[in-house]
Amino acid sequence: MATMFKRFFLLFLCCAIFTGCAAQPTSPNTYRGSEALRRGSAEAVTVVRVRPVTIVDSDGLISANTGVPGVLGAVVGAVLGARVIGNGNGRYLAGALSGTVSAVIAQTAANHLSRRNGVEVIVRTDNGRQIVVTQDADQQFVTGELLYLISGAGGYRLTR
């Protein structure tokens, strides 16, 4: 029973680590609960330039930039490696090797999960002011296109 509990706890810990590394959406199609039902404004704008970018989430303790996913991966891998592989002194070597491999895998996964495709769009308002908005690339825009600049509690968004 205790072994099953330990395995369940380690599986839960691994899932929590990788879930914590998930990126926060900046899509114009996604609203957080705190943003819904709040007043905002919309302004017609014209696209001046569109450029693909990569959005990297570096906020939070579990982000890839902190190194925490690698450290946690090393601890979990070392514990599992020492428990599952080898007996006697061999289990220390197994723990060290599996900890190192787990750290590299966890950090690589965190780096991958914290990056996503985005788009930087420069738009011009009717009064000639230019505004830059960066958001997820789930909508494609072209130069000269008429869009709506939505502003509210979550910042600015561009949409058709």
Describe the structure.
- The structure is a single chain.
- The chain has 160 residues and is an alpha+beta fold.
- The protein has two domains: 1-22 and 59-113; 31-57 and 116-160, OB fold (Dihydrolipoamide Acetyltransferase, E2P), CATH 2.40.50.590.
- The protein is 38% helix and 28% strand.
- The chain is built from three helices and five strands, in the order αβααββββ.
- The protein has helices at residues 2-20, 68-84, 90-113; strands at 41-56, 115-124, 130-136, 146-152, 155-159.
- It has a five-stranded antiparallel beta sheet with strand order 3-2-1-4-5.
- β2 (115-124) and β3 (130-136) form a beta hairpin.
- The model is unreliable at 19-23 (pLDDT under 50).
Largest sheet: 5 strands, antiparallel
Rounded to the nearest angstrom, the radius of gyration is 23 Å
Instruction: Note the gap between the termini.
Output: 57 Å
Low-confidence stretches: 19-23
Task: Chart the SSEs and their pairings.
Blueprint: H1 2-20, E1 41-56, H2 68-84, H3 90-113, E2 115-124, E3 130-136, E4 146-152, E5 155-159
Antiparallel strand pairs: 1-2, 1-4, 2-3, 4-5
Helix pairs in contact: 1-2, 2-3
